[in-house]
Amino acid sequence: MGAGTADWVTMRVPAEARVDLGAIGHNIGVLRERARGAEVMAMVKAEAYGHGLVEAARAALAGGASWLGVAKLAEALRLRDAGLTVRTLVCVGVPGEPYEEAVARDVDLTVGAVWLLDEVVQAAERAGREARIHLKADTGMSRGGARGDDWEALVDAALKAEATGHVRVAGVMSHFACADEPGHPSIAAQIGAFTEMVAHAEKAGARFEVRHLSNSAAALTLPEARFDLVRPGIATYGLTPVPALGGFGLRPAMTLVADAALVKRVPAGSGVSYGHTYHTERETTLAVVPVGYGDGIPRHGSNVLEVLAAGRRRTIAGRVCMDQFVIDVGDDRLAAGDEIILFGPGDRGEPTAQEWAEALGTISYEIVTRIGARVPRAYPGAL
Ligand SMILES: Cc1ncc(COP(=O)(O)O)c(C=O)c1O
After folding, report:
1. Model confidence at 72: pLDDT above 90
2. Which of 244, 271, 304 is the last residue in one of the domains?
3. Strand order in 15-19's β-sheet?
4. Is 357 found in the same domain as 277?
5. Using CA atoms, how far apart are residues 11 and 14, in angstroms rounded to an integer?
6. Same domain, 289 and 341
């Protein structure tokens, strides 16, 4: 790959996602500044949005996050296995998980239904210690959590379980549906509902250590929604949660690169890749880039997405295949082994994940998170 130390040369791989851990630390700093007074739970679910669970978690903690958030219990246990003992919350509750292990390993659990509370209480009994839980209120997202009578029943059951020493009701939380659309009427409605549902629980006797509602968009734009803790995901990785409001001083952490695998001259009128959806207009140089939809490059990006090669942006020529795609570099000089930047922070003129997302009608979350396990993650500069 590109020039570098001798180590880089010996560790050459045809494609890699380079993750700037310093950028993650910087982004947590931006979020802490914005969320003044509130603690930061870095959301590291889904391999830290593709950046690498443990490495990104460590970088976020070094940057000042004091909690970690994951979706699944297995992710929390991996963090524990890696020696990370910081408070860690599992945000999605499903039946039949090994909750006993969660309790034994000091993992906080989100509980949004009485059936889940029952499972956690039984696990706490078996583990012989108190489970720490966060009650999940459905304030308008209509996904996880309880509302109405179900909320009252959940609060009641949780406080009874606390009285018997099986659980500690450590937190209360909810999640925004439209925080990335400033001014959306659901935002104020959800803040109002959360405030009322928390007040109800406190009146019933709950003593919450942390109340939390804000994702990245809310942490950056809604001071009134910060409560005690914010839960940024996408902003931790430097991608804006509200593109219309700019970048908030965040720095994208992931750069996806691949080496040109094969470079060749072809005549005018050559059909390129499956379906021949691209034809060369004149004699030209094609380069094969050795990543495809099997690595998380969206097939919808065929003839749409741009990459940086030989100093200029090139649109993918023809269909993205499972393991490779082709670019047309005209008469420019490109050799097998030359580095191609698919996306990154944009410093060298390469597209950003946000640009890819816009070109495909999706969100940057999907672009970085879907980069597959086949693409090694590299942490240049990490000790
Ligand atoms: C419960 C919860 N909190 C926080 C987040 C982080 O959201 P974002 O990446 O928009 O900051 C998520 C992600 O979807 C989530 O599910």
Report:
1. yes
2. 244
3. 312-315, 306-309, 339-343, 254-259, 15-19, 377-378
4. yes
5. 10
6. yes
Q: What is the pTM of this model?
A: 0.95
* Residue 49 alpha carbon, nearest atom of ligand 1: 9
Has residue 14 got a pLDDT over 70?
yes
CATH number (domain holding residue 133)? 3.20.20.10
Nearest-atom index, ligand 1, CA of 41: 4
Ligand 1, residue 71: give the atom nearest the CA. 16
Q: What distance, in Å, lies between the first and last C-alpha atoms of the chain?
A: 21
Residues 191, 285 within the same domain: no
Give the span between the Cα atoms of 254 and 238, in whole angstroms.
9
- How much of the chain, in percent, has pLDDT values that exceed 90? 95
Range of the domain at 273: 254-378
Whole-number Å distance between alpha carbons of 135 and 145 = 8
Q: Which pair of structure tokens corresponds to residue 341? A: 């930047």
Active centre residues (catalytic): 45, 274
Residue with CA at minimum distance from ligand 1 atom 6: 233
Three-class DSSP category at 178: coil
Q: How far is CA 206 from CA 106, 133, 152, 265, 347, in A?
A: 21, 12, 12, 71, 49
* Average model confidence (pLDDT) across the chain: 96
Q: Which helix (H) or strand (E) holds 163?
A: helix 148-163
Domain count, the chain: 2
Ligand 1 pocket, Cβ-based, cut-off 6 angstroms? 43, 91, 175, 215-216, 231-235, 241
pLDDT digits (tens, 9 = 90+) for 186-236: 999 999 999 999 999 999 999 999 999 999 999 999 999 999 999 999 999
Quick one: 237 and 259 in the same domain?
Answer: no
Over the stretch 308-323, which tens digit does the pLDDT of each residue have? 999 999 999 999 999 9
Q: Domain ends where: 217, 244, 271?
A: 244
> What is the pLDDT averaged over residues 86-98?
96
131-136 and 167-173 strand pairing: parallel
* Helix 148-163 vs helix 114-127: crossing angle, to nearest 10: 10
| DSSP H/E element including 356 | helix 353-360
Which of 91, 237, 245 for a ligand 1 pocket mutation test, highest count of atoms within 8 Å of Cβ? Answer: 91
In a domain, 1, yes or no: no
Whether residue 226 is found in the same domain as residue 359: no
